[in-house]
Amino acid sequence: MKFDWIDLSIIALYIVLSIFIGFWISKKAGKSLKNYFLGGNQLKWYYLGLSNGSGMFDVSGAAWTVTIFFVYGLKSVWIPWLWPVWNQIFVMIFMAVWLRRSNVMTGAEWITTRFGNDRGGKFSHIIVVVFAVISAIGFIAYFFVGIGKFAVMIFPWDLSFSLGRVHIISEYAYATILLTITTLYVIKGGMYSVVATEVMQFFVMTIACIAVAWFAMNHVSAEQIEASVPNGWFDIVPRWDGGLDWTDIFAQANDKIAEDGYGMLGAMVMMMLFKGIFSSLAGPVPSYDMQRILSTKTPRDAAKMSGLTSLVLYPPRYLMIAGLGILALVSVGPMLEASNGTFDFEKILPFVINNLLPVGLKGIILAGLLAAFMSTFSAFVNSAPAYIVNDLYKKYINPNASGKRYIRISYFSSIGMVVVGIIFGFFSASINSLTLWITSSLYGGYVAANVLKWVWWRFNGYGYFWGMLAGLAGSTIKFLFFPATPDIYLFPIILIMASAGSFLGCLFTKPVDDDTLIEFYKNVRPWGWWKPVYLKAKKKYPGITKNKDLPRDAFNIVIGIIWQTVLITAPVYFVLRKPQGVLISLAVFILTSIILKFNWLDKIKDYETSV
Length: 611
Hints:
Layout: H1 5-24, H2 33-38, H3 45-55, H4 59-72, H5 87-100, H6 107-115, H7 119-154, E1 161-163, E2 166-168, H8 170-219, H9 222-228, H10 252-260, H11 265-281, H12 288-295, H13 299-339, H14 348-356, H15 361-397, H16 403-426, H17 431-442, H18 447-455, H19 461-481, H20 487-507, H21 514-524, H22 531-540, H23 550-575, H24 579-599
Antiparallel strand pairs: 1-2
Helix pairs in contact: 1-8, 1-15, 3-8, 3-12, 3-13, 3-15, 4-13, 5-11, 5-12, 5-13, 5-23, 6-7, 7-8, 7-15, 7-16, 7-17, 7-19, 8-13, 8-15, 8-16, 9-13, 11-18, 11-20, 12-13, 13-14, 13-23, 15-16, 17-19, 18-19, 18-20, 19-20, 21-22, 23-24
């Protein structure tokens, strides 16, 4: 990539500013373990919301979203339902409040409040720690490979070198440097440094997104876009068939649609809805999102923080996605079609940056994408060591150590995890292989046990352990023997395996003791099948009331998903110069916001006052 001194200066200024802020605010982190990992529960919810949004804005995800926007047009807003993106709405509506009421430091510690400290509780606790650590290492390797491939395409210097018989290529050298820089300020300042730098990084990313959208709209006309896309590209409603034929414009896009397996998008959306409901009911995985929920001052703040995450993440992100997408449509597609060469769709983003953006704007967008990478990576580096220190070292090895010793152990834990993640990255064939491993083998086995822990009183630690193990086994079999089959088609089979492990492990062992269940129910107050526990709790706490909010929560989730979706469609319609779509999106946004204000926000309870 060709650089001007202005671009390099912008990037250098951003990196120096990130390190300075991270170290400057780090003094507050050393007071206690709670300060280090949770910011002492004193961080404002809106700072945590900006931080959480920043942490979800990653480079690899941005490149993938530009690709699907290029190929599928407005229908691409449905494809992220694969994760699903609206699990954040479930968290916002009720899950964040349930989690925060526990007053714990990590997701594994939360498990002990649900299943107790007997053998089953310890089994469930240990498997959550293992899950958290392995997934964090997997993500670090994913970031290592992703940022290396990105950096080697944008920075002009060859950093390859040899150590004896070992040859280190440039992308590994760049990745190691960027991971090291980020790790330094994360381990120095913990959650304080992470949140402070991520808030700054959020504003850098937002400026970059707005600048790219402005540039694209000034250099690409609505007529050029119309001429560059097939019929149906502007239709947002998913059809049972693909509805897109690129043959006369950019034939390779048809091959991409066939390769992705998204031809029958309407059927895919129905399956994504089925999978997404179960995945979202399971709650957030033990990672940075959960860590920010547990860092808030109150349960109400946790809910507001989760709502703010969607509000600040999607509008700027999709301004950039749409801006880069239309630049690619009118320039990249015709050029490559004329050359009749093969094309890697995942390289659309760096290609547009390198060839179409002017001096200054190139530096801004690259600083923004570096900010996206550093914020996501730093979130994982901060959250995962909490499980090693709090849930292993403190719980089983040295429960009476000083706060300074725990923090020192966290330093070594962070460095160790980054090193192991980098080693895994060296041996990973591609970003795609890591993504498949994480989403299939790890997250695929998470759902059944984690839904049951919320809604069924009889579920115990043994059921949780065997359900997680069976789900992970099913997902691993899928990954090893059916790698070409999209995960979503085999999700029902994996769900059945995990559910069988959960029920069998639970029903052949004793229930959780009454005291643990009563205290959990009193504090968290979930809805679901809790009647026997509620009746026992009523004797101990006569003022306790049953949670009857399921209908309202379900209604608010539907409204919330619509609210989140128009946060995506409004900026896309704006960049595409579709005023009718913008106005409809804004009208729906206002209406759903009013409903959520009165039916969700005004009714959030920190704790039940009747007990």
